[in-house]
Amino acid sequence: MIRLGGWCAPRLCSAAVPAGRRGAAGGPGLAGGRALRVLVDMDGVLADFEGGFLRKFRARFPDQPFIALEDRRGFWVSEQYGRLRPGLSVSVPAPPRAGPPSRPEPQTPPLRG
Fold this sequence. Notes:
Elements: E1 2-3, E2 37-40, E3 46-47, H1 49-60, H2 77-84
Antiparallel strand pairs: 1-2, 2-3
Protein name: NT5M isoform 3
Region (Disordered): 86-113
Organism: Pan troglodytes (Chimpanzee)
C-alpha cells in the first residue's frame, strides 16, 4: 500500500505523464487533495479491491452495517467487519480467485534403471 496523501511522489510518477497533467483533475496530486490508497498486484495492475468489495457488499446486504472506505483499516476485511457486529464477518464472501486456473504440473517419465 502506498499513501500518496494527494501528492505524486517523484520516484513513482511516470515520465510519460507530463508534469502539467498530474493532478489536473481537481487539485494537487492524483487524488485532488485526498489520501490515495493504491494496490498493485504482482503483474503491475492497479486494482480497487476495497471499492469493489464495498459496492458488492452493499448491493447484496443493503440493510447490514458497512465500513466506509475512509474508515477501513488493516488487510483482512473479515476482521474489521467482525468487530463491527459479531457474526457479520461470516457474511463477507470470499473474493473470487484471480487469474486463470492453475495448470497441472508436467508429468515426468519414470526413471528406468
